[in-house]
Amino acid sequence: MTINLKTSEVPNREQRLGTIIRWEGVASDLVLDSHATYGPKKNCGQQGRKLCELDSPFTQGNMCAECVTIGQGIMIKGSVVIQHSPIGCAAIQAMISRLNRDMTNQRGWKLENPRLICSNLTEDDMVFGGLAKLEQTIRDAWKRYHPAVILIATSCATGIIGDDVDSLSSKLEAEIGVKVVPMHCEGFRAKHWSSGFDISGHAILRQLVNKNPTKKQDDLVNVLHLGGPDIYTPMLAKLGLRCNLVMGGSTMSQLEQLPEAAATAAMCTVLSYLAAGLEQEYGVPEVKVPTPYGLKATDEWLREVARITHREDRVEEVIASEHARIKPQLDRLRKDLKGKKGYIAAGATFAHGLIADLRELEVEVDGVLSFHHDPVYDSNDVEQDMLAEAIQTFGDVPHYTVSISQHFQAYTSLHRSKPDFIIARHNMAALAASLGIPGAQIRFFNDGVGYDGLLRIGELIRRTLLTKKFSQSLAAHSSLPYKQWWLDQTDPFALSRKEVTPEGNSHANFSCQ
Amino acid sequence: MSTKAKKIAIYGKGGIGKSTTTSNISAALAESGYKVMQFGCDPKSDSTNTLRDGEYIPSVLDLMRENRKVDAHQAIFRGFGGTYCVEAGGPQPGVGCAGRGIIAAVQLLEQQDIFEELELDYVIFDVLGDVVCGGFAVPIREGIADHVFTVSSADFMAIYAANNLFRGIQSYSNTGGALLGGVIANSINTPFHRDILDDFVERTHTKIMEYIPRSLTVTQSELQGKTTIEAAPDSEQADIYRRLADRIAKHTKSTVPSPLSSSELRTWSASWATQLIENERAQQAPESVYAGVNDDN
Questions:
Q1: What is the pLDDT of residue A462?
Q2: For the residues of A448-469, what is the DSSP string, one character each?
Q3: Contact of A323 with A316, CB cutoff 8 Å
């Protein structure tokens, strides 16, 4: 689907990409079905079927696109984000503040609290409209902070009453002379929080980039990431390239110069909306190969960046020297980790990347839990399919679970896999610890990227395996809030199977695309 | 054609003849060779029925409920003269939120660039009644419709609804919203009806686009599931709709109306009510006085 910048709202990921949040099976089937439903039938010895999604009668808790959108907005230096919502939505501000301080610290910036204001809508505002309060809040924000940009995040409440945030934003932007940017992130708009990344990417494309770039910077590469330390500048410097690191913490001028760059690389596929938009609108090519996890994907990623930026002459030398540099440590790690069994629980791109990293380290992986699945990306280019690449390079994953960060399903899947350790995001490591499984909690997405990322993950696993006794002690003093019936299950979607026939065949409760 | 479609929103109190008028405008424009889309913004989903032989079509919201990925083309049906018919749809009375439904349906077509892709000359939004919440105001916001027209009879309740709409337009006018083209005077069978509406538009600084008499031809056509343009193309009523469509087609400059305040409206309607009673007392047989106005019947 072409990216449409004429409207301020973004179609959600399920509409654009067919995103699903519940699936269970063999990873290669997910790839085949995704390609059969949405993409060209590539890499398929056999035909896939229509991609189907399981239902669930129960959800343990979740977050929404609004949380992500606000988090993204606040990472723009000098910004104010206004949450145009009732006060309950502002509960997320504590978590966002923590993430933002963490990011600020990692980047070596001055430690500041995010400037995040809630318009605090009440019954009267629901009845009479919330725009007067929003206008007052924008004026207050301007008076108090004189920010570089004012970003407005809408909420479910304002979406239902139909507050015309766009018109008010244009009016006040003209009046106060600073960008006032609406971001339509009502939580009910999308079933997965990652739509929030598209909403912030859309706001950047529509209002924050310099729409009339007068020059090209041939040695500049836009890298879109999820926050954390800047590991990309040194990686690209080896090719004589400079890095414009955005989304996970950037300045307004970095966003303005996005259209001037020679290429854009989205380090996570949830950020690829902005990359696709920059290619469509400004001809900045997107790096359309899997993100650099593991040796092979990192080699290919560097080659693709070099090809786009015309640096093919030096890339092979860089790759060879990097391989040689990491070899001694990589060999040691492989020796230590060979034969261990790991379990991965992470967002889609990260999960795919970790399959590559772990198997490169000769760790066995038979169970993976991914928080969502995109059958295709905004580029519509199947070459970007990281899961296909990972299983083609390293073999299939027999138990691949798509679950929107649901602990009860992660438990079942872990219980089935019985790994030596788990490597995870979103607090899944704590769940594993209560089962006596050592857990490596990943703080930053960037941790596993590139040649050094492979080593970092290897070292993290080695350290984690040393905590086995500690985890077992934790397990001895922990219990899970489930009945024995659930504790005995090995199917994370047992609740979704409607009926079980006498022959033991179950019929899943699902919907197909 | 390469120019942008002219987008028009038609509002009015429920039952005032809004869909009838809108469908006849669409049919008349289509008859003149224009590419027209009629977009019904009413949960009843019956705006476009008379363009399609009385048939209901699946609405945008029906599709959104049934499919995870919606191709907006599936919500577009062809009607009389090649018109493109779309119904936003909405919930059953008493449940859900019809306003949010309009927001979602209009956004879907905007996001998929349907209005540009079909290279339409006219998009006509037929919007339910009063502007009861933000959702019903979507067509008059910046960037959706270019001009708003309201259908009103000389009935005070219909005029109240029109005045309410003027308030909505006035408030959105500060932020780039659509402005008012004028009032389509419907069911005008006596000079007295005409006088009431003439006075109202003068006080609110707008104009009458056309006076449309109440007509049995319209009822007969609707009973066949057709517009008057289609069912009775040679009738005088059809010519009135054609004249209205032509005026709307040629209309370029809309303005900000000056709605009456609640107390002004009350005083104004009371003065007309007094006159109405006096007239009726003075004239024993008002029907005979005004005979001939309704000559299409």
A1: 97
A2: G-HHHHHHHHHHHHHHHHTTHH
A3: no
Length of chain A: 513
- The pLDDT score that the predictor gives to residue A499 is 58
Residue A509's pLDDT is 64
DSSP per residue over B76-103, as a string? -EE-GGG-EEEE---PPTTSS-HHHHHH
pLDDT of residue B295: 43
Q: Which of B97, B107, B141 sits opposite A164 (nearest CB)?
A: B141
- Active-site residue B69, yes or no? no
- Is-contact A345 A392, C-beta < 8 A? no
What is the distance of C-alpha A193 from the center of its chain?
A: 9
Cβ-contact A406, A389 below 8 angstroms: no
CB A362 within 8 A of CB A338: yes
Residues whose CB is less than 8 angstroms from the CB of residue A66 and which lie 6 or more positions away in sequence, other chains included: A83, A85, A89, A92, A153, A154, A155, A156, A185, A186, A187, A196
pLDDT classification of B278: cutoffs 50, 70, 90: confident
Q: Does residue B103 sit at the A interface (CB-CB below 8 Å)?
A: yes
From the list B156, B163, B167, the residue with the least C-alpha distance to B183 is: B163
Residues 6+ apart with CB under 8 A from B259: B163, B164, B166, B167, B170, B204
Nearest chain A Cα distance for residue B61, angstroms: 14
Cα–Cα distance, A125 to A121 (Å, whole number): 6
A18·B141 Cβ contact <8 A: no
* Residues from chain B contacting residue A511 (CB–CB below 8 Å): 68
Amino acid at site A308: I
Q: Does B174 touch chain A (CB under 8 A)?
A: yes
Hey, is B2 helix, strand or coil? coil
Helix (H) or strand (E) holding B211: strand B208-212
d(CA A431, CA A422): 10
The nearest alpha carbon in chain B to A37 belongs to B69
pLDDT at site B297: 38
Compute the radius of gyration of chain A from its Cα atoms.
23
Q: How many other C-beta atoms are found inside a 10 Å radius of the C-beta of residue B60?
A: 28
**A133 residue type, one letter:** K
Angle between helices A27-38 and A386-394 (to 10 degrees): 140
Return the closest-CA partner of residue A249 out of A145, A117, A144, A99.
A99
At A357, list the tokens.
Answer: 């990293």
Blockwise average pLDDT, block size 10, chain A, 513 residues: 90 92 95 84 61 87 92 95 97 91 87 93 92 97 97 96 92 96 96 95 97 95 92 96 93 97 96 96 96 95 98 96 97 97 95 95 96 93 90 95 93 94 88 93 87 96 95 94 92 79 56 67
Query: Could you write out the DSSP letters of every residue in A362-416?
Result: T-EEEEEEES-B-SS-TT--GGG-HHHHHHHHH---SEEEEESS-HHHHHHHHHH
Neighbouring-strand partners of residue A242: A220
Asked if B96 reaches chain A (Cβ–Cβ under 8 Å), the answer is: no
A64: region left, alpha or beta (phi > 0 left; psi from -120 to 50 alpha): beta
Dihedral angle sign, alpha carbons of residues A395, A397, A402, A405: negative
Q: What per-residue confidence (pLDDT) applies to A504?
A: 56
User: How far, in Å, CA of A10 to CA of B111, rounded?
Assistant: 7
Measured CA to CA in angstroms, residue A421 lies from A155, A355, A437, A472 at distances of: 39, 14, 6, 12
Q: In chain B, what residues touch A513 (CB-CB under 8 Å)? A: 68-69
End-to-end CA distance of chain A: 16
User: With contacts defined as CB-CB under 8 Å, which chain A residues touch B134?
Assistant: 129, 161-164
Q: How does DSSP classify residue B291?
A: T
Residues 6 or more apart whose CB falls under 8 angstroms from that of B164 comprise: B130, B131, B259
Angle between helices A93-106 and A65-74 (to 10 degrees): 40
Task: Give the pLDDT score at A102.
Answer: 86
